[in-house]
Amino acid sequence: MSITQTPVPALCPQCHSRLADEGGELPWCERCEWNLAFRAPDPALGRFTDRQERWAHRIGYRLDADLFTKLSGHPLTRPGTTAVSAALTAVSVLVIGILLGLAVGGLWLVVAGPFLLKLIGVIMIGCALLCRPRLGRVAPLREKYDELSRTGQPELFALIDRVAAAAGAPVPDLVLLSPEWGASAAVLGLRRRRVLTLGLPLWSSLRPQERVVLLAHELGHFVNNDNRRSLRTQPALAFFGDVAELLSPLRRLVEEDDEEPVAAFARLGQSALGQLLWPAARAAWLVHVLLHVLGARDAQRAEYHADDTAARIGGTTATGSLMDVVACGHLHRTVVGSRARGGARAAGWREAVEQTRAALEPRLGRLRQLTRRRDASPFSSHPPAGLRHRMAVTQPYRSAQVVLTEAAAERLDAELAGFEEGYRRVIAASW
Ligand SMILES: [Zn+2]
Ligand SMILES: [Zn+2]
């Protein structure tokens, strides 16, 4: 497949079909996928960062395509321990060794060294703290989102129990409801607590059987050997990114939960010292990409396996249609946002999403393909929705093992109705 940056012709140079044109997107060939791998330059990023990002994008695109080719047409078995996860574990052990060395050495200098060395000791301890492995914390999530309970939402928990039993997965320790478009499963903290988070807008916009698929995919993460959720590989996958962030003069200021000292280091990054550290930052970033490229195959394999579990439990049809909702998520969010501003709650969001789904139907093939361009990155947590859709519908057809009727779905909605107005206001203000 060739890729071009030169002016785009009206017909595909490879197969002479008419090129697809989706508002604002670079044209590509729907039939032979010519130019699909190419992402437009983003001048806002600056020349160097843009080139670096496009390079990572190309690698991500290639990874997606290679893994899909390798897995499609075969049964999706549970990912086992691979050479890659063994290598990532070894790097993690090394990283922990380095961090412990820095912390202990720093402490020793602070206690026993002369003044100047004490200062270096403090810096060493600071670096070790800033690059420490993150186990994730349950408390901030609990504060941010609403916790659901067996007494408050008995029908929802009964469904979770059924899906977990069918998936052979443990039930989550904590179920949270968020005003976001999405759902996630995480294992957090020293106690490795399993947390399931459901975004109400997505959840309530889905058709009943798609909700079963969504739950099954998320619970599938508790049993699919996913290296991005594993304690063994997390230090390797995070450390070099942290180092690159610390050293980089180009880094964007920390947006999320990072502590103050990180921002201080960021300012340092803009100074002359930052320029000196630049090559080291780039080297750390390269190692970071390399480890993610190594880990991405296993991680994506784990995602496909979670999708396969979901198809087995919720059925092939609903898995395919859920992937289409995911592929068009940005469009659905927009209509839900505008409905929320008009005062509509969950029933209105669902109606808007259904209307959008009908309107998008003729463009679906192209929108699925576009996810491959949009989501290509060695850092993406999931394979592009378009490939997940194709993988699901090309596996042998499966009917649903756990069925959720319309009436049961309505009872689930009723259990969550109390959250709708509060979330509607959040969505109206921010989407
Ligand atoms: Zn073509
Ligand atoms: Zn997933």
Number of DSSP-assigned strands: 4
Distance between the termini: 37 Å
Principal-axis shape: globular
Number of domains: 1
Our estimate of the beta-strand percent is: under 5%
What composes the largest sheet? 4 strands, mixed
Q: In which range does the helix fraction lie?
A: 55-70%
| Count of alpha/pi helices | 16
H/E element order: HHHHEHEEEHHHHHHHHHHH
Radius of gyration: 23 Å
Give the integer mean of the pLDDT values.
Answer: 87
Q: What compounds sit in this structure?
A: zinc ion
> Which structural class matches the secondary elements?
mainly alpha
Task: Supply database-style keywords.
binds zinc ion; four-stranded mixed β-sheet; 4 strands; 16 helices
Describe the structure.
This protein is globular. The protein contains 16 helices and four strands. α14 (364-374) crosses α15 (385-394). With 431 residues, it is mainly alpha-helical. It has one domain. One zinc ion binds at residues 217, 221, 303, 306, 382.
Summary, kept brief:
The protein is mainly α and 431 residues long. Helix content is 61%, strand content 5%.
